[in-house]
């Protein structure tokens, strides 16, 4: 019995040993299998040599999830869902082309001809330093005359429609003065009576002085009364008309100011109107005290009246400097500078104007006409022609302005073609020819 039990234990031990050996072989076979574990990539650490060829049997086309580890050579860190196909419309070559031409403005030759576009080639030249101020156009003193009343009475204009600006001739009757209805009587009638009376007294004194009945002194007084009455009477008699005393224009010109109204009472010597020939005019500029030291170098001026965009140059109007003040007035801190020039016919005396006083001359300066400058948000620009129908907007830094031209400190090079006429039209074309940003589809 004891022997039987021992034998049974031996058999059981042998069986257990065989089972453990079989399990070990099965585990070895499992390790030879090729497995993909989620997240760890391809792990072939237990293989001597593992190669994939195009036809080695590895097929991942049906994998639900294909993952690459950080070191597998694929870098999609910046990719999410961005895919390009041949027909998706992305053209980066055209995009670069747009960037290089985005600042060009298209303005055809037909448009340029229609607006009369003009350009000027930038070059070094002379430029006058200037002082910008304000002033007024005045008539020259020698070209004006005042029409004054020669007697007391009521004014009646010969031409009731006469007004400022009416042309008159020398000796032309402007008004008649009548005193027939005045209490003091008609002065012309009085002058005639006084003349006749003085004439009779003088003739009587002549006969008495011969007989020494009156003294020489009394005779001389009678003669003086007669000469005075005669002068007054003849002066009025020459201008006497049926309606009163006629008052004429002393010079030919234009009525500058009509100082009295129809039917108004005037006394002897009272101004009735001012006649101006307007052949020569004066430009009076007011200069700040800060520029007093520069006044000695001023030689000429340009000016632009408030009613006109045209710039007038005294050098082209036979102008000359008359004088400049040596001190400011009590009422202001400005010094007057006065010029005289020929009136070309379209300059209005009394008009206010912008004045550009010209002083020293600079050489080798780049300047452009004032008409070429445009301003946007405090910056100054010009437009350059860079092709037959292509233009470009260019920012510039301005220096002094003499009313006709502006000094350019930076932004322009010699040889550039600057638009001087038609600038506004080119500016409008810039807004319509700007290319859109981004991709072109």
From TrEMBL:
<keyword id="KW-0813">Transport</keyword>
<dbReference type="InterPro" id="IPR058649">
    <property type="entry name" value="CzcB_C"/>
</dbReference>
<dbReference type="InterPro" id="IPR006143">
    <property type="entry name" value="RND_pump_MFP"/>
</dbReference>
<dbReference type="InterPro" id="IPR051909">
    <property type="entry name" value="MFP_Cation_Efflux"/>
</dbReference>
<feature type="domain" description="CzcB-like C-terminal circularly permuted SH3-like">
    <location>
        <begin position="366"/>
        <end position="427"/>
    </location>
</feature>
<protein>
    <submittedName>
        <fullName>Multidrug resistance protein MdtA</fullName>
    </submittedName>
</protein>
<dbReference type="GO" id="GO:0022857">
    <property type="term" value="F:transmembrane transporter activity"/>
</dbReference>
<dbReference type="GO" id="GO:0016020">
    <property type="term" value="C:membrane"/>
</dbReference>
<dbReference type="GO" id="GO:0060003">
    <property type="term" value="P:copper ion export"/>
</dbReference>
<feature type="compositionally biased region" description="Basic and acidic residues">
    <location>
        <begin position="30"/>
        <end position="100"/>
    </location>
</feature>
<dbReference type="GO" id="GO:0015679">
    <property type="term" value="P:plasma membrane copper ion transport"/>
</dbReference>
<dbReference type="GO" id="GO:0030313">
    <property type="term" value="C:cell envelope"/>
</dbReference>
<feature type="region of interest" description="Disordered">
    <location>
        <begin position="23"/>
        <end position="100"/>
    </location>
</feature>
<dbReference type="Pfam" id="PF25975">
    <property type="entry name" value="CzcB_C"/>
</dbReference>
């Amino acid at each position: 019995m004891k022997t039987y039990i021992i034998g049974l234990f031996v058999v059981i031990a042998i069986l257990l040993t065989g089972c453990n050996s079989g399990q070990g072989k099965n585990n070895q076979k499992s390790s030879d299998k090729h497995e993909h574990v989620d997240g760890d990539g391809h792990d072939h650490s237990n293989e001597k040599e593992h190669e994939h060829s195009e036809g080695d049997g590895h097929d991942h086309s049906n994998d639900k999830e294909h993952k690459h580890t950080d070191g597998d050579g694929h870098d999609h860190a910046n990719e999410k869902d961005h895919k390009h196909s041949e027909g998706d419309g992305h053209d980066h070559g055209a995009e670069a082309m747009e960037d290089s031409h985005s600042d060009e403005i298209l303005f055809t030759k037909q448009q340029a001809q229609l607006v009369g576009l003009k350009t000027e080639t930038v070059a070094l030249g002379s430029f006058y330093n200037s002082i910008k101020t304000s002033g007024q156009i005045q008539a020259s003193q020698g070209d004006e005359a005042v029409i004054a009343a020669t007697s007391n009475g009521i004014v009646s204009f010969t031409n009731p429609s006469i007004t400022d600006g009416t042309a008159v001739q020398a000796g032309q009757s402007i008004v008649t003065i009548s005193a027939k209805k005045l209490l003091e009587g008609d002065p012309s009638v009085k002058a005639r009576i006084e003349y006749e009376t003085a004439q009779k007294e003088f003739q009587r004194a002549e006969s008495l002085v011969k007989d020494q009945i009156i003294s020489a002194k009394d005779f001389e007084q009678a003669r003086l009364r007669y000469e005075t009455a005669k002068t007054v009477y003849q002066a009025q008699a020459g201008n006497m008309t049926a309606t009163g005393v006629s008052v004429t224009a002393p010079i030919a010109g234009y009525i500058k100011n009509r100082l009295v109204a129809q039917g108004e009472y005037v006394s002897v010597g009272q101004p009735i109107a001012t006649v101006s020939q307007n052949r020569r005019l004066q430009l009076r500029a007011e200069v700040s005290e800060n520029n007093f030291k520069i006044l000695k170098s001023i030689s000429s001026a340009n000016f632009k009246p408030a009613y006109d965009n045209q710039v007038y140059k005294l050098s082209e109007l036979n102008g000359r400097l008359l004088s400049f003040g040596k001190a400011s007035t009590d009422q202001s801190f400005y010094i007057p500078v006065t010029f005289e020039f020929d009136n070309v016919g379209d300059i209005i005396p009394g008009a206010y104007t912008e004045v550009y006083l010209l002083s020293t001359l600079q050489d080798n300066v780049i300047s452009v006409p004032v008409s070429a400058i445009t301003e946007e948000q405090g910056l100054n620009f010009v437009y350059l022609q860079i092709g037959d129908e292509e233009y470009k907007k260019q920012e510039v830094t301005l220096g002094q302005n003499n009313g006709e031209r502006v000094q350019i400190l930076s932004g322009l090079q010699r040889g550039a073609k600057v638009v001087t006429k038609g600038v506004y039209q080119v500016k409008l074309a810039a807004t319509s020819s700007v290319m859109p940003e981004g991709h072109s589809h």
